[in-house]
Amino acid sequence: MIRLALHGGAAVRKVVSFPGWPVFGLEERTRLLEVFDSGQWWYGEKVRDFEEKYAAFQDARYGVTCANGTVALETALLACGIGAGDEVIVPPYTFMATASAVLKVNAIPVFADIELDTCNLDPIDVERKITNKTKAILPVHLGGLPVDMDAFKILARRHKLVLIEDACHSWGSKWKGKGTGAIGDCGVFSFQMS
User: Fold this and answer.
1) Which residues of 113-126 are buried (b: 16+ CB within 10 A; e: fewer)?
2) Could you give the domains of the chain?
3) pTM of the full predicted structure?
4) pLDDT tens for residues 113-153?
5) Are 64 and 51 in contact (CB under 8 A)?
6) Looking at residue 131, what DSSP letter applies?
7) Cβ(11)–Cβ(5) under 8 Å?
8) Residue 83: C-alpha distances to residues 79, 80, 88, 165 (Å)
């Protein structure tokens, strides 16, 4: 059996430090200064261009930028009519914003279990957690691994629930040829470094 470096085995990684973040160079500096000089810091031509191109990249019809993934989740929940007293089924293994966004719109996060082999939300346990107060399912495509969107679409349709994808970790991921975040009723992404 191979011993971990922690216990005296050979180290896999020989370089001590990791690359810095964010990674940038002259092109990024030039583009940043173009936006700075334009005076359109919040919503200008570059933002509109990015929204269109990123939506197309993920196979989505529309793209709307937000300050971050947390705000995007809150906006998606509100846009889908989720509010006071509504239950939203979420996974327990995710970034805290998945559940805190539900609380922010005065709804109730209900935790369903994850699948041990994927660490993604388990559609079987989700169905067990559905009540007459459940209004949405919020699966997370964790670490770029898509959840079983077919199973969640069937559940959402059967129980008349909104299906919001937390695709913050799945840029470029596909489920049966379709970009994650563009399969349910809506989806959100994040460009946080993880």
Assistant:
1) ebeeeeebbbbeeb
2) 58-188 (3.40.640.10)
3) 0.85
4) 999 999 999 999 999 999 999 999 999 999 889 999 999 99
5) yes
6) -
7) yes
8) 10, 9, 10, 17
